[in-house]
Amino acid sequence: MQVTSLTSRRSFIRSLTATTLGGTALALSGCGGSSRGSRPKKGPVIQKGGTILFQGDSITDAGRDRRSEGNANSTNALGKGYVYSIATQLLAEKAGDELKIYNRGISGNKVFQLADRWDKDCLDIKPDVLSILIGVNDIWHSLNGNYNGTVAKYEEDYRALLKRTVKALPNVKLVICEPFVLRCGAVNDKWFPEFDQYRAVAKKMSAEFNSLFVPFQGMFDDAVKKAPPAHWAGDGVHPSMAGAYLMGQEWLKVAGI
Amino acid sequence: MQVTSLTSRRSFIRSLTATTLGGTALALSGCGGSSRGSRPKKGPVIQKGGTILFQGDSITDAGRDRRSEGNANSTNALGKGYVYSIATQLLAEKAGDELKIYNRGISGNKVFQLADRWDKDCLDIKPDVLSILIGVNDIWHSLNGNYNGTVAKYEEDYRALLKRTVKALPNVKLVICEPFVLRCGAVNDKWFPEFDQYRAVAKKMSAEFNSLFVPFQGMFDDAVKKAPPAHWAGDGVHPSMAGAYLMGQEWLKVAGI
Hints:
Two copies of one chain form a homodimer.
Chain A: H1 2-17, H2 21-28, E1 51-56, H3 58-61, H4 82-93, E2 100-103, H5 111-116, H6 118-121, E3 129-133, H7 136-143, H8 151-168, E4 173-177, H9 194-208, E5 212-214, H10 216-223, H11 229-232, H12 241-254
Parallel strand pairs in A: 1-2, 1-3, 3-4, 4-5
Helix pairs in contact in A: 4-12, 8-9
């Protein structure tokens, strides 16, 4: 039964990610004309005793309790989204590794807002692994008139943030997550093709900074063949439990877990 | 990398459960002198459109929001323990199956307290799959003088509850979870050997009612070879994130997922 179960899971994951693996492989091999080729890109991402920090917006935040954010591996501080899914699995499967996992996502954040709090909420934590998922608000808040953003500004802000990061933390292993949406809820035709350009910027940043890249959009594009978009994210932006689980599995796969 | 990753996970799970699989296999084969052999015991536990109900005490409850307990698959209503871990994975991997998952565990409950609320919190929900984890408070509250319980009373109450359940829901698929403790926190030598007798009763009930049996104690006995007991349950009773994840994986494996 064990073998059957794992075979089934492998088939499921393979079917979900068949089209996204290409993107992952590219990122892992460091293609893309890196301008910062001296940064580490080989070896296991998550190592014994490592500190792993997740940064981003509401998708990362996922209702975390900020009062306990200073405590590593705090159930409440990790929220109830993909970070929680990743953390539970890592803390179980790498039980003896004394990992320290933090979530500092904040709802509504755009790239410039990460920058505003980057010393306190990233550099001071000195992560060994830094995972970033940011971008959906950069376009969303612009579409609804609450922010004067553009793709070019997203790219400029994101590059500046990453430059600052690798300057302060030259050995940090970066995991850049692709912004994604599902075509339901708040997501309509007005988002496109501009949103694809935001996604492309995230991938470009990943190549420039020799980071791992988590191709969430392709993963969800495959997932909607199995269940409607709202099953994975009711409003098209914020993942459901099922969506968060998938994201966690994808992240772990890219990280080689 | 995919294959390596899954091989690694399989090895990990195998190493954790090597000693517990024997118990699982026994339960699945229906050994144990069942007195209710007419009940269904074959076929997939979780079927399309099925309603799955988790019942128990604080370990099941895990901080669930009772205000939304009437909504199937509600993130908040499922708590943040093993039920959540199981639900997220099921809702992702069986995305098209329209499962309805409920959590009605209540902190502090002993078997008789499940019975007190069984109509409302179980029979009225008409689950296709009913998972029960109960027993640790039956002994704990007796040890600390807050309940006048015995192993015999636990067995009597548990059998009565299950008889009532299968009478009202003759086709329900039962999953009986083994009570467990870890030797840390509130758990000291006073718990033994009596606690082992409570565990044996749960297994006996599983055999009598042709249920699946989830051998959590053996799973945790193996887990403590990888990290100290407190990594899995700080007080010896309530699982950490890592402990809850392991429980979810064990439950899913027994359910053939």
